[in-house]
Structures are given as structure tokens and as C-alpha cells.
Amino acid sequence: MHCRILESEAHRKLSYAWVVGDLDTVVTFTLTPAASGTRVTLVQSGFKSTQKRNFNGARYGWKMMAGRLEDLLTRTPEWAGTI
Q1: Quick one: average pLDDT of 60-75?
Q2: What's the N-to-C CA distance of the chain in angstroms?
Q3: How far apart are CA 47 and CA 32, in angstroms?
Q4: Which residues pair with 42 in a beta bridge?
Q5: pLDDT of 62 strictly over 90
Q6: The CATH number of the domain covering residues in 2-74
């Protein structure tokens, strides 16, 4: 996999090109303030109509990773309360 950062704004946005074989997409994470904290928006664009399998695989993978990230962020760190 080859990645190239296209745009980076501290605490706001990260966008990069994601190239694997003939799959050439752009992944963008955007952070926006929300009443309960921060909203993370993820967009992966650039899939060709012939890459439905890749699209479905990416959708599955991002959903899985989002769930893991949510679990991680809601956990109380092991070191909490020891400082």
C-alpha cells in the first residue's frame, strides 16, 4: 500500500491518497466540535464502478475499525486514578 498525505490541518482534517494495486482512493478524516465532544467523519472516495468488491470490503473494514475506536475511547485507562 502506498499513501501520500494530501491535506493536513491540525485538530481538523487529514486527507491522504491510498493506493493498493489498481485501487486509487482518497481517505479523509474530518473532526468537528459536537455537543458531546468531537464528531469524526470519514470519507473514502474514488472507487470505480468495477470495484464494488473493494468498496464493500472498505465499508466493512471501516465499520469494524470505527467500532474498535469507539470501544477504545470509552474505556477508562488502566492508569486512571493513579496520578
Answers
A1: 89
A2: 41
A3: 25
A4: 29
A5: yes
A6: 3.30.530.20
Going across the sheet that includes 37-45, the strands are 2-9, 13-20, 23-34, 37-45
For the stretch 76-82, contacts whose Cβ atoms lie closer than 8 Å and that sit 24 or more positions apart, written own/partner, are none
Amino acid letter for position 20: V
pLDDT score for 47: 96
The alpha carbon of residue 15 and the mean position of all alpha carbons in its chain are separated, in whole angstroms, by 10
What is the distance, to the nearest Å, from the Cα of residue 18 to the centroid of all Cα atoms in its chain? Answer: 12
pLDDT at 57: 94
How far apart are the C-alpha atoms of 33 and 20, rounded to whole Å?
Answer: 32
Q: Give the 3-state secondary structure of residue 33.
A: strand
Q: Is 76 helix (H, G, I), strand (E, B) or coil?
A: coil
Rounded to two decimals, the pTM is: 0.79
